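Action item from last week, closing it out:
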Amino acid sequence: MKPSIHFERFNQTPSIPLQPDQGFTLIELLVVVGTLAVLALLLVPALAGTKTDSWRVQCQNNLKQLQYGRLCPATETI
């Protein structure tokens, strides 16, 4: 026996009517978007500074490794 599917229940209106004060107003949405934009603008320079700091640290590490490579063979005895 095939199970019966009742399609008529999908066409019913919701039992709780939507109220006009539900959801965000345009002003509230614009305030949220503006706040996020300000936070993003404050965050961008901080992230750019960390990128240059990481390049400086990497360069210092490379110079230290070159110095170790130059000094270590001179101190080893064969």
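Closing note: The helical segments are 26-75.
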